[in-house]
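Quick one, tokens below. Sequence please?
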């Protein structure tokens, strides 16, 4: 027996071989990116010892079926070999979805929209075409989205002047929507004036997934052969989540028109020009916007006085949202 040596060859399709043992690492010859491993031994005990230190590692993020081919050949003349195939079923684990985002605070000007979708994207290795759940919320401003992919469904919000939106859809189309997302600061609002930084929070729940795997079934007996009929196995994994926050500073830069309020004025609340709370004040608009409506004066009651009498001007006030401390958010209460 000592006159012989044996060569063992291991191969697989969806993994690779390695060893944490230094001696075995030197003896193991890897080919085809580690999918084939060969080593030689001068006794069956040596073969078994080396086998005990070899690791089979599945390809990253792969699940399904694989086959391990094990071949042993002697160095006789002629050389004789035996090969066995070991079926492997690789069941999935759920990889967490991940938001990739800009870490530094973002910046926009007063009353200027910011294309915030340029600074964030969503990744999920396991989602494929499955719908996942996303929530996007803003603390002070508003969010809009110019167009909505047909494969995305709004659970909450509409994509027009929302404080929070809840969405479902495949990752590809959710990223398409997020890429168009616009942030709008509150009207007349800037970080220096209110000593606040706005924040937009992104949350994702992949809701887990269920799938069917094409797994080989091994049946015994010579009639059935070594490899039986392929069957489908059902798997289900629990959901994972991720969240991140983008911070936005709003730079001062817009000089807003001061306005006068007078007693006896009748106002009519109409939609502001932009539909998101920002307003270009004209000489007819006398109130700052309330949500997404602006006050327009319809009439002013006449003041009736007696000749040669004094009258105190009561009820007249002047406001400038750029410096008003009692109305810093620009919202009329």
């Amino acid at each position: 027996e000592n006159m012989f040596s044996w060569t063992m060859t291991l191969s697989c399709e969806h993994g690779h071989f390695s060893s944490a043992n230094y001696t075995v690492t030197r003896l193991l010859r890897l080919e085809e990116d580690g999918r084939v491993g060969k080593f030689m031994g001068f006794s069956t005990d040596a073969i078994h010892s080396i086998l005990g230190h070899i690791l089979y590692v599945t390809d990253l993020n792969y699940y399904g079926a694989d086959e391990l081919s094990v071949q042993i050949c002697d160095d006789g003349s002629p050389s004789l070999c035996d090969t066995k195939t070991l079926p492997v079923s690789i069941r999935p684990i759920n990889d967490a979805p991940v938001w990739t985002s800009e870490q530094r605070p973002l910046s926009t000007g007063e009353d200027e929209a910011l294309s915030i979708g340029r600074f964030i994207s969503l990744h999920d290795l396991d989602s494929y075409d499955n719908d996942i759940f996303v929530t996007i919320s803003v603390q002070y401003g508003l969010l809009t989205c110019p167009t909505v992919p047909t494969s995305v469904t709004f659970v909450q919000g509409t994509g027009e002047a929302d404080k929070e939106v809840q969405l479902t859809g495949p990752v590809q189309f959710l990223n398409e929507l997020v890429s168009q997302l616009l942030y709008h600061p509150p009207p007349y609002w800037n970080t220096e004036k209110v000593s606040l930084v706005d924040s937009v929070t992104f949350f994702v729940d992949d809701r887990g997934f269920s799938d069917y795997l094409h797994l080989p079934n091994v049946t015994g007996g010579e009639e059935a052969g070594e490899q039986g009929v392929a069957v489908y196995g059902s798997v289900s994994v629990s959901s994972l989540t991720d969240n991140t926050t983008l911070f936005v500073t709003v730079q001062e830069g817009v000089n807003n028109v001061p306005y006068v309020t007078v007693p006896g004025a009748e106002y009519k609340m109409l939609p502001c020009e932009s539909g998101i709370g920002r307003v270009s004040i004209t000489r007819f608009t006398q109130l700052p916007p309330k949500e997404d409506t602006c006050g327009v004066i319809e009439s002013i009651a006449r003041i009736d006085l007696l000749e040669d009498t004094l009258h105190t001007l009561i009820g007249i006030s002047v406001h400038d949202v750029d410096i008003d401390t009692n109305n810093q958010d620009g919202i009329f209460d």
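The longest strand covers residues 64-74. The longest helix spans residues 171-179.
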